[in-house]
Amino acid sequence: MRETLSFLLHTLGDFLVLLLLARFYLQAARIPFKQPIGQFVLALTNWIVLPARRIIKPIGVYDSSSLLIAALTAYLMHFSLLWLSPWPYLFADVFSQLALLAAALLELFKMSLYLLFAAAVGQAILSWVTPYHPMMPVFNGLTAPFLRPLRRIIPPISGVDITPLILILLIQLFLNVFVADFEKYLLYQVRLPS
Q1: What is the pTM of this model?
Q2: Whether 183 contacts 106, CB under 8 Å
Q3: How far apart are CA 82 and CA 6, in angstroms?
Q4: pLDDT by 10s per residue, the chain, length 194
Q5: Domain spans in the chain, listed from the N-terminal domain onward
């Protein structure tokens, strides 16, 4: 029962964090919410973002309420998952709270990389199949800041731009080598001393 509840909490928590980050990045990249994915994100996040905007004001053009709610969701998700685990954890310690906060921020970073990964995959597939698909401006808007430096280094090969594939490989490398181990380390810091 505990494993099922943990799985549901982790899945729903990550999904909400992903939606809130998508809202934040779409707005930061000034991508209109007219396309279906934008409407989907708005429909599933308005219930929590719109009331929070009364308290949390935007910082410049950035939707700080979406980002702060995503961070709070990640924090509560990790707190709940540790509380449900059979291992003893010390939540009252300041160092443990800092480790949980760092794990929540790492969760935001990880979910941001997953969003970028999905946008790069979508862009790569659509550029080969239907380059004028309505989703292409969304993918281009999200990936352009990361592909621009790569395109300066790696020119097209026989007219084929392979930089989205390079970006996908770099994201996978970063997620598998650095993020996974660092997340385990942070959550281990919350455990009770032996």
Answers
A1: 0.90
A2: yes
A3: 9
A4: 888 999 999 999 999 999 999 999 999 999 999 989 999 999 999 999 999 999 998 888 899 999 999 999 999 999 998 888 877 777 777 888 888 899 899 999 999 999 999 999 999 898 888 889 889 999 999 999 999 999 999 998 888 888 999 999 999 999 998 888 888 787 777 765 54
A5: 2-188
